[in-house]
Amino acid sequence: PAPDSDEGLTMTAALPAAVADRLTRILPADRLDGVLASFAAVKDVAFRINTLKEQLDAVLAGLRAAGLNPRPVAWSPLAWVVDAAAKRALTETPAFYQGEIYIQNLASQLAPLALAPQPGEMVLDLAAAPGGKTCQMAALMDNQGWLSAVEPVRDRYFRLKHNLDQQGVSIAHCYQKDGRAVGALTPERFDRVLLDAPCSSEARFDLNDPDSMAHWSPGKVREVAHKQKRLLLSAIHALKPGGVLVYSTCSFAPEENECIVHAALHKLGDAVEVTPVDIPVLHQPGLTEWDGKTLNPQLAHSVRVLPDSLVDGFYLARLVKQRSTQ
Ligand code: SAM
């Protein structure tokens, strides 16, 4: 389908042509204009209350005392939103400086919730910096258990460590390593693994900020896809039989999403299975066909979160390991 409003057409023209064309092929016709409009929206600011540092009510009281008016999010007691215009004021509150809140888009908060790490478990975050999801997982685990956080890029690794300290995370063990090596180093050691993969970041495109699109190219998508395939295999090898893995990206490209999970299923056969996941925001099922290629039907259980004026675009697949891959 083609965009059917002038607004849609104008904004399509400003996205890289290949991305706009791809969106028209992927999205349901009645969602296309809304998604295109989201690239120009000035988004309200979502944040997560960090119960490792302070109780929910005390944080909210502090924010209100600072003149802010946080709005709740129906599906998570810890997710809150302020108007875009209040972002600066939010970052000047004691709660922000003391790590009692963490600014994190709602789509991003869905990945740890889908993984659902439990207190006492062994958990791996294979692409961790700057650490928003690592901190959220530590909070879900109530700082009990073991949380390995892997990040190879030096400055991002130090930013990760800083954020974990500031957020009061005591169970994290940080490793400055390439995630592709981790599966072989720690085979079948973890109960749960998050692979929030490095990606082309298409869902972060902002038509008000041309720089957000400056580094995108079809070649970049191919390059990250190659890395993602190897990272996902490493993540699966690090997972115990019976364990749960979430693979996520902030890209719309099937080559970075369904095709990566398809390749792992193809290689490992029935050793892994894609399982349904409950997503409380606007979404569509993962694709089971792309560019004339039929993909594993299990990919219909994966999820494409559709962006709107608050939520970023996101892709998420929940995998359960059925048997050893050693
Ligand atoms: N999960 C993070 C969060 O919620 O704050 C965001 C992760 S970001 C999407 C992907 C990260 O993967 C980047 O920090 C990037 O430097 C890192 N990365 C790049 N190559 C990697 C590799 N070979 N192994 C592990 N991580 C890698």
Can you write the helix and strand succession as a string? HHHEHEEHHEHEHEHEHEHEHEEEEEE
Report strand %. Answer: 15-25%
Q: How many helices?
A: 12
Task: List cofactors, ions and other ligands.
Answer: S-adenosylmethionine
Strand runs, count: 15
Overall 3D form: globular
Helicity, as a percent range: 25-40%
Largest sheet report: 9 strands, mixed
| Average pLDDT for all residues | 94
N-C termini distance: 46 Å
**Radius of gyration, CA atoms, in whole angstroms:** 19 Å
Which blocks of ≥5 consecutive residues have pLDDT under 50?
1-13
* Structural class label: alpha/beta
Walk me through what this model shows.
With 326 residues, the chain is an alpha/beta fold. It is built from twelve helices and 15 strands. The protein has helices at residues 6-14, 17-26, 32-38, 56-65, 87-91, 94-97, 106-115, 132-140, 154-166, 182-185, 218-238, 258-268, and strands at residues 45-49, 71-73, 76-82, 101-103, 122-125, 146-150, 172-175, 190-196, 239-249, 272-275, 283-285, 289-290, 293-294, 303-305, 314-321. Strands 5, 6, 7, 8, 9, 10, 11, 14 and 15 form a nine-stranded mixed beta sheet that branches. It has a four-stranded antiparallel beta sheet with strand order 2-3-1-4. A hairpin with an 8-residue loop joins strand 14 (303-305) and strand 15 (314-321). Helix 1 packs across helix 3. The longest helix is centred in the last third of the chain and has 21 residues, at 218-238. The protein is globular, with a radius of gyration of 19 Å. The chain starts with 5 loop residues before the first helix and ends in a 5-residue tail after the last strand. Mean pLDDT is 94; it is low at 1-13. The protein binds S-adenosylmethionine (SAM). S-adenosylmethionine binds next to helix 8 and helix 11. S-adenosylmethionine (SAM) binds at residues 108, 126-133, 150-153, 156, 178-180, 196, 198, 227, 231.
